[in-house]
Structures are given as structure tokens and as C-alpha cells.
Amino acid sequence: MSKRHVTTTIDGESREFLCEDEQTLLDVLRDVLMKTGTKEGCGTGDCGACSVMLDSRLVCSCLMLAAEAEGRVIETVEGMAEGDRLHPLQQHFLEEAALQCGVCTPGFLVAAQALLARNPDPSEREVRFWLAGNLCRCTGYDKIIRAVLAAAAEMRGADA
Amino acid sequence: MTQKTRDDQTLKWVGTRPIRPDGVEKVTGRARYGADFARPDMLWAKVLRSPHAHARIRSIDVREALALDGVKAIVTGDDLPEIASEQAFVGEEPTDYRMMSQNVLARGKVGYVGHAIAAVAATTSAVAEEALGLIEVDYEILPHVLDAVSAIAPDAPLVHDDLCDRKGEKKAPSNIANEVEMGHGDPEAAFASADFVIDRSFTTQAVHQGYIEPHACLAEAGPDGQVTIWCSSQGQFMIRGYTAKLLGLDLAQVRVVPAEIGGGFGGKTTVYLEPLAVALSQRSGRPVKMVMSREEVFRATGPASASRIRVKIGATRAGNFVAGEAWLDYEAGAFPGSSVAAGSMTIFAPYAFEHARSHGRDILVNKPKSAAYRAPGAPMAAFAVESVVDDLARQLEIDPIDLRLQNAAQEGVQSSFGPRYKRIGFVETLEAAQAHPHYDAPLKANQGRGVAAGMWFNAGLQSSAAVMVNADGSISVISGNPDIGGSRASLAMMAAEEFGIAYEKVGVRIGDTASVGYNDVTGGSRVTLATGKMVVEASRQVIAQLCERAAKVWDVDVERVQWADGKATVPDDDTIKPLGLAEIATGAGRTGGPIQASASGSVRGVGMSFAVHLCDVEVDPETGKVDVIRYTAFQDAGRAIHPSYVEGQIQGGAVQGIGWALNEAYVFDESGRLENPGFLDYRMPVASDLPMIDAVIIEVANPDHPYGVRGVGEAPIVPPIPAVANAVRAATGVRFSDLPLSPPRVLDALDPAS
Amino acid sequence: MTRLPERLFSLARVFLPRSLAPYTGGVLEVELPGETIRALIAGLEAAYPGLAEKLSGQLAVAIDGDIVADPYLEVVGATSEVHFLPPVGGG
Known about the structure:
Order of helices and strands of chain C: EEHHEEE
Helix content of chain C: 10-25%
Number of strands of chain B: 30
Number of helices of chain C: 2
Oligomer: heterotrimer
CATH superfamily of chain C: Beta-grasp domain
CATH topology of the domain at 420-456 and 607-750 in chain B: Aldehyde Oxidoreductase, domain 4
């Protein structure tokens, strides 16, 4: 069985990889490309830890075959900061102590970034419903919601 | 080792909210968790698991699987050494190494669906998976038992035919693995003098800790017998100890490198994969990586015990608790060791009873071996007792917080588990809840407010820490406890406080098992408290050395030297210019060499933490759905080193408890197969289910800690179940005695005709 | 006249787990001399042969309300209350 050759863009770099037909995008990111910042919590699309952006759309990378990434643009948590400069969401997650163990954090950051791209001024309720696909077992969500709202406010201020 | 508690006035860092040292790597994806390690030439391994709840294994044939191209090694129970019976203590769950070994890989018999039977290492995980299907196991299916009531029936199938040692006595074999009894006075007689007695029974289902990171490890065994394990756990020393014990290795041959841990909550205080990965690496000569699927996590790790608890409390008309008695049956799973002893200890602990008694039984069933889960055993006990206290308040027409205050445990009171309390903050915590605006806020139709209390111990156990002065005057701290929720920050803050230097000048690393002295697990709410105490002690030793070095430089008597604000000074001679940490460190080679100290100890003076929660719910009479609409959690933290992470513990514990109350439950079919081994059907709370969780920190300093710390991690999961249940009682008039309070169950109770 | 140290006359109050009642004829509270937990256990063994083994599995005690794991060498005050407890850990 020969492997499939895939050309894609990941976190701003063009990347090529070989994958088996049945490998998910998450498998390839983590085990082939060694980009382990994206996490696996369930493998069934229920926890959101593997969230990535695919052509500016939020997806669970565990539910997508790697072969489907051909010609697509993928963004992960590893591309969020610009060099040493953290994204406002990352900065506010730190300031608000919005992570404890931190394993769900990459997925929350990517999902929250997707929310703010489409709605720069979400209500608390909108943030809660948008992030309902991401499980966190440590924080009770309180500080995550506050961090997203604070980042949104800062980003609106920066845009103005 | 009595250390004076530091005075608030002089503190610079304690009580502030700096960014955690490991924060940036965790928000950029660079932090490495259990499944993020790889080695050249690494194999992947998978586990074959039992499809039966109870069966004898007649034979296992691995020949065809071994012949598959890419398969490099297989281990079955026969390949692990037989372990002598020896008591171990895992989280809150007493166990036996022999049983632990049998749980890691079945010998002769399987005890639950999901029980590991064999492990295969192959060049890819797909090949390993394929090989599992080629292993032939011949089972003789045995009758199984799935709940505590059936398990103690006279004709119940025996989960272990030879297990009969309980209360230290040899009895006839049974599924009762252990019994505990504690308390004082004579409750039976005392109930006669009570004006009111409430006697109710409660049930709870098994629930999973639900950490988002599945168990994962990478092991490499060299031809020289040296073994290295990279894995996420609540204790690298625990992984080393148990793996070495189960495989017959010397501890010195095994090095465990702690990964970041993606949640544990007690569930990562034991081994499942590591001994298998090491055994496969020994056989294949290659590194072996193992990662559980979420389904495996649900089927084969975790759950907190299902329980049946009967509580009886007698009170006078004036509201004084006369006597309390409780009977607790906890399901251990297929091996002995539930958290029933802790449940029996904590059930009446918040109250001053003249007569108290609890009777606990550890009961074997054909389900996964239970594991510690945050305040193990206490949440279900609190559900029972706090529901009864709520009913008493209603019957006596006394405000529920007043009733608790009237009977609250405090310093000098004999606890229901034996000793007299030292200084505790339960009364202050109750008073704070009563004074909070939440307590009097108006409610609307179909809404109700519940209040509940709970306590959990702080474990001291064994800790070590090392503190080193670097040449530039910065400080390196090495802790041996994985950081699950910000403990690097609290350790750095205490060190910065001791040295009188900036927080940013302190680096904290979590050492592997070869780079710092032994530490018991990150658990028991103990890291900031106990390991923190060792960091403080090592820091003070280093400061003493710094003063000696400065005395040498100045050629003065060391008694004249004092340490303040990061400098050595001679207060009685202002012509001597103070020497800063960096100056002493840079010149250390001339005054005696590197400056460092380590501290180790069995930590005493650990105190305990009390929590009181207020919960408002709204119950939809059409669907039975319960929404938590407001939640405020009060807890005595002794002294909050980093208040954000204390609040985080309180909020996270509260929400785990809310999930346990409303939705979470293991559902088994009649054959003993778990029907909901995924996050879709095992429904943990998500952001849209919840309001903000207000955390209110009460600070009644622990007099035996240098900064007054009480461990806070576990107490917050104790009150939520009864807080929710009491709120639902207030909203609906129905007392719910069985968890979870899921919509169908609530709807049934609201409208029995439906 | 030799004056004995006051210590010899002071006794710790030791509370045993209820499960041990069968081994002590129902006695659950004992006053014993002894400056360490080890000495108290030796005293209990002298009074109730076989009890030391039963207590060896008990990994925790509370000495005047302070819970200690693996306490064998812990010092007991002149009038301390000592409770033998199931070991307390956590999750």
C-alpha cells in the first residue's frame, strides 16, 4: 500500500507530507510533522482539544482525513503568536489564569480566535455557546470566558 | 520543624497574581504532555481488553499475532512476575501490589469489561491494532455481579474466590473486601433523646475524573537494564515505584521524566500502561509508546465508586444535633480498595456530634477498579448528610446556615473520625456565606436556592525540594511534584518572598526521579502546602549560607549578619555596604563554592479545608432540565498564595461536582458493558451549561505553615452535589436521593403520572 | 530520695480504631506512657499481644489533632491525645 502525498500550508509555511489513507489530520500533525501543540482528548470530535482552522473554518482535526488537507490552509495554536509577541487571547489566558493543566488550552485558543474573527464583540452568552464544543475539566470555564471577553475588548480597542 | 507564620505586612508576592512560569509554553503549544514524546525507531503498542465482565482465561494464543509483519513483541499476564501480596496506598484507595499487577494485566481471570489481557508492540499503531484481532483468547464465562446490593447477597458470584481477609480476620470468602467503623459515643441510645430523627438512603453512580488528556507514556529499556519512562502522571516517583515493583526492577535502574499533565484529579495516581510499555521495550529492544483512546480511559481507568449511603441524624427541637449514624457501601470494582474509609471519616466531619458512628463497606463488583477522585469518597457522603441536614432545617424551621453554625465543628471539638480539631475555618466560612448578597437575593418561579458544606483533609506525606543560587543571583527551585494547576507559580512566589527578590528571578523546574529527592504524588491538596514548606525550608538554609558567605567577605561574626530584601546587611554597622544576592553568588567560588540546599521531610502541620457553597437553580417543569443559574463558593484557604489559582481550584471543583449532580454517570448494560464510554454520552459540563462561579476565599491561617497555607484542591468538590440537590428541593419540593438529577428523572418526580 | 522525672508519671491517651475492639476485649481508649508512637505501640502490644501487627497497617495517627502519616518516631507530648486513623491521602 503506497502512501499519499499531500501539499498544504500549515501555520504560514508550505508543508508536504506522506500519509496513509486512514490517517487523520491530527495524526499527521502530531505524529508525522511532530507539531504536538494540537492535542487529542477523545478522537471523536467531542472535546475540541484538536481544534484547528481549515481555510478559516474551525474544525476538529481528529475528524478530518489528512489527505483532505491537500491544497488547504491550516492554522494551529503554534502559529498564533507572532514571534515573541503573544496573541491577545494567549496573553489574556495567562493574565486571567484561564488554564490550569493547560491541555485543553490550544483548542480553546483556536476556537476563541475563530469566534472573535466572526464576532469581535460577543456577549458572555455567545462566548459560552461558541465554546460549548470545547471541554475543560479544570477551570469550570469561568476564567476562560473572562479571558476571551477581555481579549475581545482589547482587540476592539486596538482596531479602533 | 515549627516555622513561624509570616506576617501579612511584610509580604510582597504572596497574595498577588503573577503570570505562571510555565504559562507561555502552555498557550503556545510548546508544553509537552504525556503523548507528545517520541524517540527514533519507536514502536507503538496497544492493549487487548476483555469483552466479558467475568471470565476465566483458559488460554491465550498469540502465535498468529506475533507472526504479523511489523509486530515486535507481545506480553500477557504470564510474562509479568508474580507479585507477593503487599499493601500499597494509592491516592485515597488502599490497594495491594499483587492486585495492582493483576489489574495492569489479567492473570487467569478477567474481572470487568475492559480488563487488560495482552499488549502488542508494532511498527505502527495500525499494525498493533490489527495484531490485537489475531490474538485468540479462550474464555470460560462466569456469572458476574454489577452492583453492591447483589454483590452482598448470600448466593452472589464471587469476584475473587479467595478473598476473605477483612477487619484483619479470616472470614468466609465474600465480596465484602473490607469494613471500617468509626465514631464515638452511643448514637443508638442517643437517638431516643432526639425530638426529630431523619433517616434516609441515597445512591450515586460511578463517575469518571474526566481529565482531558488520556493516559500516555513512552518507555525505553536499554540492553544494560536501564529504563527511562516519559509520561504524564500525578507523580513521577509513584510511576517509578509501581513500575519497578510490578516488573521486579531496582528503583535505581528506572528514571521517570515527568511530562506536563493534562489533568488527573486522583485518576493518575496509579499505573496502567507504564509496566506494559517497559516490558514490551525490554522484549523488543526498542522504545515503545502507548496512548489510550478515550474509550479505554472510560472502560479501564478511573471511576469514582458508585455508592449507597444511609444517614440518620437526630436533633433537638432547638436544633442541636444529638446523634448521627451512617452506613456506607462503596463499589470498589473488580479489586479491593474504594474510598469508603475516607467517606466514613468525612461524612459527619463538619459537625460537632456527641454521638457519631459510621460503618463503611468496600464491595467488589465486576466493574473497573475504582480510583481516587478529588476528595475521594467525600462528595457522595456529603450528598447524603447535607441533604438530611437540609431536611432537618426545613423541619425545625431554622435557617440552614444557622443550623450548620449551631452545630459547626471548631477548634477543640472532637471530630467524628476521632481527633479534636485544631484551628479550622468552618464557622468563618459559614458566616461569609450567610453575609454574602447571594444568600438573600430574590428568586423567581421554578427557582430554588441550596446551601451545603463539606471538608477535606490536607495530606502532608513526603516531599523534597532543592534550591540553588545561580551565578547571576537568580534562584533555581526544583520540585518533584508535577504542576497540575499552577503550583510552579506558588512555589516561586514563596521562594521570592523568602529571598526578598523579584518573582521573575526564581525559576521552578519539575525534576525527574534522578534529579530531586523523593516526593509523594501531587494529590491530597498537598503541593503548595507540603512541597511549599520544603521550598521555604531549603530557601532558609540557602539564606543562612548566604549570610555566612557575606560574613566571610566582610570578616565579621556571622551573628551580626541579617538577610533582608535580597541583601546581606550588618545592621549594627552602617559603614558596611550591603551585599546583594548576585554579588555573593558571583564570588561564591572564593567563599566556599556553589550555594545550594535541599530539604526533605514527612510534612506535619497540614490542617484541613472547609467549604460552603450556595447554588441557585431553575427547573424547567416541562422537561425536567435543571439549570444552575447562580453559584457562589466559599472556602477557607488558610492563606491564598496565588489567589487566581485558588479561585481556579474552587471553580473547577464546583463544576465537577455540578456535573456529578446533574448529568454524569456510568451506564452499564446487563452484561456489564459500559454503554457510554465517550464524551458525547458521558456528558460533562460545557461552558453553555454554566454561569460564572464566584469564588470567595476565606483566610483563617493554618498556624503550622510558614505562610498559613491550607491545601485547597479537593474541598471544593465536596459541597456541590448536595448544594444542587438542596436547590432542586427548594425549587420543586421534591427531595432527590438518587444521582444524577437528569431531566427524565426530575420530570418523573415532578409528574409521576408522566 | 531520688526524684523521678515528671515525664514518667504522664500518660498519653490513646484511642484505637473500633475495628480493633475484638483484640482488646472491647477497650478502645488506653492511657499509656511513651514518648513516641513507637513506644506507645510497644505498650499496646504488651497489654494486648498481637495488636502491634494490627496497627502496622494503620499508616496514620493524629497527635493532638495533627494528622501524621508514617508516624512511628513522632514525639508524643506528656498529655497528648493520640488517635489511630485510616491513612488519609487524596485525589
